């Protein structure tokens, strides 16, 4: 593992050198992320030398459980922390593509924990096919956009259903934030 860690440290240093030469010499101002996905998480835990300005993006286990949350030292990094979350997954040991198999309650729990533990810089959702995951995508993006507002909402699915546009009245009618929301009886 030491050889792999050393190699990855060199790769990261080389990438930063290339960015400084070709994009901006002020490397700390360039957005950069590191996602310790699968086998790379073990290398990170073994003491990878990651620059402080790089955003740590914590992945889930492909089934909705975030593998690691930032600790106190990681929360103090200038690059901050984020999340890479699978609402859909293609790969071993089991793919879930055409159905949204991650329960909304698990998404809400894990993303609330991530937010509360400081992973707020970047949230990425791997959504795959959009239509089967529409409610979960809306849940994820609602939390990402305004966590405190999300927490004030009494029932997410109810507001999702009443926030759909009523095509009989025009594209904007019934959308969230408008004064004429479509009632569930109109669907």
From TrEMBL:
Gene3D superfamilies: Glycosyl hydrolase family 115 (3.20.20.520). This is Uncharacterized protein. InterPro entries: GH115, GH115_sf. Residues 161-187 are annotated as: Disordered. It comes from the Bacteria. It comes from Niveispirillum cyanobacteriorum.
């Amino acid at each position: 593992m030491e050889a792999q860690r050393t190699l990855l440290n060199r790769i990261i240093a080389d990438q930063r050198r290339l960015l400084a030469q070709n994009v901006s010499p002020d490397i700390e101002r360039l957005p950069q992320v590191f996602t310790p996905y699968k086998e790379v998480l073990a290398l990170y835990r073994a003491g990878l030398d990651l620059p402080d300005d790089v955003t740590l993006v914590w992945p889930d286990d492909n089934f909705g459980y975030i593998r690691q949350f930032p600790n106190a030292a990681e929360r103090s990094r200038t690059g901050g922390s984020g999340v890479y979350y699978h609402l859909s997954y293609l790969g071993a040991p089991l793919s879930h593509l055409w159905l949204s198999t991650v329960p909304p309650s698990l998404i809400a729990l894990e993303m609330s924990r991530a937010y509360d533990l400081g992973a707020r810089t970047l949230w990425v959702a791997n959504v795959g096919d959009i239509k089967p995951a529409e409610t979960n995508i809306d849940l994820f993006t609602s939390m990402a956009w305004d966590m405190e507002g999300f927490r004030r909402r009494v029932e997410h699915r109810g507001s999702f259903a009443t926030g759909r546009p009523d095509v009989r009245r025009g594209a904007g009618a019934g959308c969230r934030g408008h004064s004429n929301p479509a009632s569930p009886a109109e669907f």
